[in-house]
Amino acid sequence: MIDEFLDYQSIDAELMKLEKELDNNDNKKQANLMIKFVKDATEKTKQLNEEADTLLKELAKLEEVEVKGIALVEKLIKQDISALGEAELKDLEFKISNAGKNLRDLEKHLFSQSEKIKSALDEFETTKKKVFLARQKHKENKEKYDEVLATTNPKLEKLRKELKSKESKLNKDLLEKYKELRKDGVFPIMVMLNDKTCGGCRTNLPSSTLEKIKENGYIRCENCRRIIYVK
User: Fold this and answer.
1) What structural domains and CATH numbers belong to the chain?
2) Per-residue pLDDT reduced to its tens digit, 88-110
3) Angle of the 172-183 helix axis to the 2-23 helix axis, nearest 10
4) Between 186 and which of 34, 156, 167, 181 could a Cys-Cys bridge form, CB atoms 3.0 to 4.6 Å apart?
5) Helices (H), the chain
């Protein structure tokens, strides 16, 4: 029985090696990175587009205020001052000065908004170019990974069929424990007794456990849960 399990584990080890090679394939990793980048960049372009739209609306409002401010200054300047008293002249001078200051502040604000819009649009264009390049890289890496996959998949399928065909001959309870450990990432699962220690985690085994291994041919390690066997 142990020999059959060891044969099963040997095939499983080969299967795991191929699966790991696929998981660690650089082209696959790069393709996945490009997918994430495109997703993040697409969200970024959406945000930039909304930001630019908001800034443009704010700019339009500011320009409208500027037009009204200029009209006010022109009206104040054209006012007939010949009939105005000293207090009225001072009030007019204050209004013209204040309107001029507001226009200068508004001009600075308009310039600032224009710069923000330009910056947002520039970043938008740069991001679009990066997305285009990322999609190209994704396509290239995916094609290369697909080539590897086309070669590896038949091998994986063959090994899986071999494992399946052997399962009917194995002890069901032991196979269940094997699969449980396999799922948890423990490997190898079947380990030989090394003198008085577990062949997996190197834990010293008590005499009672050693006796059980001799009686049954195997036992589960209380430390690492592997199946320890003797020949």
Assistant:
1) 14-169 (1.10.287.1490), 171-231 (no CATH)
2) 667 667 676 766 677 777 777 77
3) 20
4) 181
5) 2-23, 26-78, 86-167, 172-183, 207-216
